[in-house]
Amino acid sequence: MSTAAINDVKRPNKIHRYKPKDSSAPGDDPTPDYMNLLGMIFSMCGLMMKLKWCAWCAVYCSFISFANSRASEDTKQTLSSFMLSISAVVMSYLQNPQPMTPPWQ
């Protein structure tokens, strides 16, 4: 026997074969859910307080939520969040058609 085989410190009972995760199992990425919730909050602020920048942030969050969602997920909640954000933008510009001023001015 060679010295390499004698000095082998591997323990055969501790070796576990790699098994890849099932690709059909849902992931644990909470980004679409958080962006969906954040978009709805911004939409409500845009509608209730007539803040145009909140309405535009809601549209942005809805796009991120839609882009990060999986095809197997239910699209009703994402679609309702997107439509709510679009309605917030439309209503804020219908009530005051002036261009948006930045919130820091």
From TrEMBL:
Pfam families: ASTER
Cellular component terms (Gene Ontology): endoplasmic reticulum membrane
Keywords carried by this UniProt record: Membrane, Transmembrane, Transmembrane helix
One GO process term, biological-process aspect: protein insertion into ER membrane
Subcellular location: Membrane
Major subcellular site: membrane
Superkingdom, natural source: Eukaryota
Molecular function terms from GO: protein folding chaperone
Region (Disordered): 1-29
InterPro entries listed in its UniProt record: ASTER
Family: Belongs to the Asterix family.
Protein name (database record): Protein Asterix
Organism expressing this protein natively: Dreissena polymorpha
